[in-house]
Design brief:
Length: 125
């Protein structure tokens, strides 16, 4: 994805998330694409939203525990992070919006988690 497209996509997602009636407490950015991850973190921090993000040097278990034990109510994930996402989902005990950035529609596996609200590319303006 070209950089201008990435900026537009991230800005669109942030606009969608901040326009909902859900107060964003903090967000987890589970994206392996470094420029895209940095754009999401920058935009969220610009909106004064705390972010948790993947760091290669940190074991995933630490991030999982951080997200589970925090007030994180937004998770932004790409396909490469679905394994990590599936490790987190069963332990969340609150309402969470999960953004699947690379899906056009909600994938079949997500319907098993009816307590969460999934957003996909079809939800972008």
């Amino acid at each position: 994805m070209r950089y201008k497209q990435q900026i537009r996509q991230v800005t669109s997602w942030i606009d969608v998330l901040t326009s909902t009636n859900i107060p964003i407490k903090s967000a987890a950015v589970l994206i392996n694409n470094s420029p895209l991850k940095k754009l999401f973190a920058y935009q969220l921090n610009h909106c004064n939203i705390k972010t948790y993000k993947l760091i290669k040097e940190v074991p995933p278990k630490i991030l999982i525990n951080e997200i589970i034990n925090s007030d994180c109510n937004i998770i932004i994930a790409d396909k490469s992070s679905y394994i990590l996402l599936r490790q987190i989902i069963p332990y969340l005990r609150r309402n969470v919006v999960i953004v699947l950035t690379q899906e056009y529609w909600v994938p079949d596996w997500a319907w098993a988690f009816t307590q969460y609200y999934f957003l996909c590319q079809q939800d972008l303006p």
